User: Which sequence fits this backbone?
C-alpha cells in the first residue's frame, strides 16, 4: 500500500500527512481501560479507532515495524472503591473486568496490541518518574499525595488546545483539598 496516511494533528487541529520519526520503528501508546467496572459501548470507540490505525500502519509499513502499547490501569481510587463496594479483593475485581474487556476486544475483532502492561506491574518505574518530577519542581507532595504542578509546565494544555484558566477543576474528578490552588 503506497497511499499516504493523513491524521488530524491535535496541536493546531489540522489534517497532516503522517511522517513517522522512524519508518522501521513506529510506536503507538494508547491509554487502555481502568478496570473497575464492566466495559460499556463508549469504551469501544477508542478500541476500534486505534485498532484500525494499528492495522493501517502495519499494512503500509509492515507487521514488524509497528509497536502498539495499550496500558491497563489496574489500581486507582475507583478500583479500590469498587472492590470495597462489592466486598471482593482488588485483584479479583481487576482480573474479572480485564477478562471482560479482553472478551469485548475479541468480539469486536480487534487485534491484540504488541504489549498490554498493567499499572501494578510498573509501580517501581512510576515512582522513579514521579520522584524526578518532584525533584525538578513539576510535582509536589501534600498529605502523602503527589500532585502535578500544571503552572510549572509552560506547554500544559498545548495538545488539547486548552488554557489552564479555561479548565474547570473538578469536572472529571473531585478536587482534593490537598491540592494547591492555581
Assistant:
Amino acid at each position: 500500500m503506497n497511499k499516504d496516511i493523513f491524521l488530524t494533528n491535535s496541536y493546531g487541529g489540522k489534517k497532516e500527512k503522517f511522517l513517522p520519526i522512524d519508518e522501521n520503528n513506529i510506536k503507538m501508546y494508547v491509554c487502555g481501560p481502568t478496570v473497575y467496572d464492566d466495559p460499556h459501548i463508549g469504551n469501544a470507540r477508542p478500541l476500534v479507532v486505534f485498532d484500525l490505525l494499528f492495522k493501517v500502519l502495519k499494512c503500509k509499513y509492515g507487521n514488524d515495524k509497528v509497536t502498539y502499547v495499550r496500558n491497563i490501569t489496574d489500581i486507582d481510587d475507583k478500583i479500590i472503591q469498587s472492590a470495597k463496594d462489592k466486598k471482593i479483593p482488588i485483584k479479583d475485581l481487576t482480573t474479572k473486568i480485564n477478562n471482560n474487556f479482553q472478551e469485548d476486544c475479541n468480539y469486536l475483532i480487534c487485534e491484540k496490541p504488541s504489549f498490554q502492561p498493567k499499572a501494578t506491574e510498573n509501580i517501581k518505574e512510576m515512582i522513579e518518574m514521579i520522584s524526578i518530577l518532584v525533584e525538578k519542581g513539576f510535582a509536589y507532595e501534600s498529605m502523602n499525595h503527589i500532585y502535578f504542578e500544571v503552572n510549572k509546565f509552560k506547554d500544559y494544555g498545548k495538545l488539547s488546545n486548552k488554557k489552564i484558566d479555561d479548565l474547570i477543576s473538578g469536572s472529571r474528578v473531585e478536587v482534593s483539598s490537598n491540592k494547591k490552588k492555581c
Notes: The chain has four helices and six strands.
